[in-house]
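User: tokens in, sequence out, please.
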């Protein structure tokens, strides 16, 4: 039995990280989540293309706004909104 599995996917971890870190840097995100920056970029692109986040370029930095009133993607979870997985102190839109 492997001790490497977790309950959350990397997409869920990135979404939560963006929601709880207003000024996040992909390098820091990748280090803390434990995936490459390339994976972070791909996940952010996925989240943005599905409407879960909006990217706004400010100078050289990207700032992300989350949209947590959308349903979770898996058919077994689709009755729940993504905001239900976020920490309670997170401000969501």
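Assistant: Sequence out:
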């Amino acid at each position: 039995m492997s001790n490497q599995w977790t309950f959350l996917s990397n997409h869920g971890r990135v979404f939560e990280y963006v929601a709880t870190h207003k000024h996040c840097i992909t390098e820091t995100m990748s280090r803390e989540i434990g995936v490459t920056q390339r994976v972070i970029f791909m996940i952010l692109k996925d989240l943005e293309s599905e409407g879960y986040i909006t990217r706004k370029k400010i100078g050289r930095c990207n700032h992300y706004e989350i949209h947590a009133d959308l349903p979770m993607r898996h058919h077994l979870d689709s009755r729940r909104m993504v905001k239900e997985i976020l920490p309670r102190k997170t401000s969501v839109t």
